Amino acid sequence: MQVIRDEYKFSEVYTPPKLPHREKEVELLVNTMKSSYGLNEGLYLIKGEPGIGKTSVARLSSKKLGELVKDFKVIHVNCRIYRTPTSVIQRILSTIHPGIPNRGLSLQEMMSILEDVLKDEKNLLIVLDELDYLKEGEDLVYSLLRSHEGVLGNPLTLLLIARWEPPYLMEPSIRSFMNMRIPLQKYSREQLASIVKYRAEDALYEGTFDDEIIDMIAEFSEHSGNARIAIRMLYLAAKFAEDKKMSKITPELVREAASSVGVVGIDNDMLAALDVHDKVILLAVSRVLSSSSKAWVKMGDLVEEYTLACEELGIQPYKYTAIWKRVRELRKIGLLETKKSKEGIRGQTTLVSLGSIPAEKMAKKIEEILAEELSPLPQKLR
Ligand SMILES: Nc1ncnc2c1ncn2[C@@H]1O[C@H](COP(=O)(O)OP(=O)(O)O)[C@@H](O)[C@H]1O
Ligand SMILES: [Mg+2]
């Protein structure tokens, strides 16, 4: 039985031609970015939680700008993949001119190649997506904004997308470039329902779902406000129906889909993309929390549990300072929370927690991902 009409419409790279509940933002961004002479230079920011349409707003806006601005070009860099200033610039360069050799060059050297290349580029929009993962972001953003100075190039238009606004955007040297901030909110249950319905009509065969199904998915994903989670639930439920040779998605299949979407509020791709040690740190926090019924773990206990888990997995553990650095990075992307303990007999210590993420589910999920990642079998192609 066929339920899914077009599987591509469930892929991460697909952006629908319309974004219900985000049309205003797209219009605002497009109108602010375009001017009578082309693209308005400077800095733009979209911020908010995962799955609320940030990347989609950027993509749809770029598409519209392409229709309105002559010679418009966009380079979309995902900082979850390109995490350092040099790798981002390398990515930008190789998109404009495949084959430019730039390995082993310093940031300054690469910047000067980029400046040179940008001289010939008009109306170029650079999007730095998932900026939270970028290391030394301040250097990169500053260099990019200043890249046209000193040469007769065209000013840059830079769109940043982040979960949290990095503090360096408030530095006077960068702040003066800021043209527009667009904060996006989580979707409400009603909004999720209309987004899921739209996707179902777009990608599934008629008659394979009804409003009850849509409402259930909206209900199950409401706590996250995350459209990615809601759409993933729809996709899995449709898949399950096909596997079971059924012609319709049933409420039972939605429940099954909801439970396999996994850790509440966290999408699995985000976990899978983390470095192995970050995963082990999350595993250690989850294990201590689920075995202790406390809400916070002491840094010392975390280090101990992490070291044990590394031994169990056969990997070389890091020491305290490196672990603490990673904990701070994980906090930045919303997977951990930290606070200082009250002054005790042995002084203050740092406490770590998973926030509202259920520890047991997190532990199980990470164990699954690690088992696949560290298995001796060849890795599946992604
Ligand atoms: N308003 C919307 N209408 C339709 N689909 C949406 C909407 N917002 C998000 N989506 C879909 O939800 C998923 C996550 O959206 P995305 O823009 O990647 O979120 P973010 O970048 O904020 O994490 C994508 O598959 C996207 O197509
Ligand atoms: Mg995104």
Explain the overall architecture:
By secondary structure, this protein is an alpha/beta fold. The protein has three domains: 7-11 and 187-261, Helicase, Ruva Protein, domain 3 (Orthogonal Bundle); 23-183, Rossmann fold (3-Layer(aba) Sandwich); 269-373, Arc Repressor Mutant, subunit A (Orthogonal Bundle). It is 48% helix and 12% strand. The chain contains 15 helices and ten strands. α3 packs parallel to α4 (107-118), α8 packs parallel to α10 (251-261) and α12 (276-292) runs antiparallel to α15 (359-373). The protein starts with 22 loop residues before the first helix and ends in a 9-residue tail after the last helix. Residues 378-382 have low confidence and may be disordered. Magnesium ion (MG) binds at residues 54-55, 129.
Succession of helices and strands: HEEEHEHHEHEHEHHHHHHEHHEEH
Supply the CATH architecture of the largest domain: 3-Layer(aba) Sandwich
Shape: globular
Give me the secondary-structure category.
Answer: alpha/beta
| Radius of gyration, in angstroms, nearest whole number | 23 Å
Tag the structure with descriptive keywords.
382 residues, alpha/beta, Helicase, Ruva Protein, domain 3, Rossmann fold, Arc Repressor Mutant, subunit A, five-stranded parallel β-sheet, three-stranded antiparallel β-sheet, globular, binds adenosine-5'-diphosphate, binds magnesium ion
How would you summarize the topology of this molecule?
Elements (H helix, E strand, L loop, with lengths): L22 H11 E2 L2 E2 L2 E6 L6 H15 L4 E6 L6 H12 L10 H12 L5 E6 L7 H10 L10 E6 L9 H4 L2 E6 L5 H15 L7 H11 L5 H17 L7 H11 L6 H5 L3 H17 L4 E2 H15 L6 H13 L4 E4 L9 E4 L5 H15 L9
Parallel strand pairs: 3-6, 3-7, 4-5, 5-6
Antiparallel strand pairs: 1-2, 8-10, 9-10
Bound molecules: adenosine-5'-diphosphate (ADP) and magnesium ion (MG).
The site of adenosine-5'-diphosphate has 18 residues, from helix 2, helix 7 and helix 9.
